[in-house]
Amino acid sequence: QVQLVESGGGLVQAGDSLRLSCVASGRAFSTYTVGWFRQAQGKEHEFVAAIGWSGNITNYEDSVKGRFTISRDNARNTVLLQMSHLKPDDTAVYYCAALFTPFSDAVVPTQNYAYRYWGQGTQVTVSS
Questions:
Q1: Which residues pair with 50 in a beta bridge?
Q2: CB 30 within 8 A of CB 79
């Protein structure tokens, strides 16, 4: 089991950057795939990015490719989401989520139901 805490959200202007952090507590974090999702007001959860436990395999939603970068530091039980060139459409609550994947680091699903553990979220607001 793993507990997740997100931080780093805030209010920024279009074109600015933010770095979100997801810190995990619990055992064997290095055997978990971690994903970032977001939920804008009145909309469903949307996949943003995911990273396998080795850090070598990543997956991005098309609208964030080239702007967002996901990375992880297993020694610090941390996954980062570096967001650049932010747009007002990026405004949402951002959640990190974890999936236990001890047998493969290539499992980086986009479906929110694939992830068992979720953080409480951090608000990102991008003004135009």
A1: 35, 59
A2: no
- Residue carrying the six token digits 């680091």: 105
User: What's the CA gap between 73 and 84, in Å, rounded?
Assistant: 20
| Nearest by Cα to 86 from 45, 41, 125, 38 | 125
Q: Tokens 């770095």 map to which residue?
A: 19
C-alpha dihedral over 49, 118, 8, 10, to 10 degrees? 90
Place of tokens 């507990």: 3
pLDDT at 126: 98
pLDDT tens digits, residue range 8-22? 999 999 999 999 999
d(CA 108, CA 112): 11
Residues 6+ apart with CB under 8 A from 83: 17, 18, 19, 20, 64, 67, 68, 90, 124
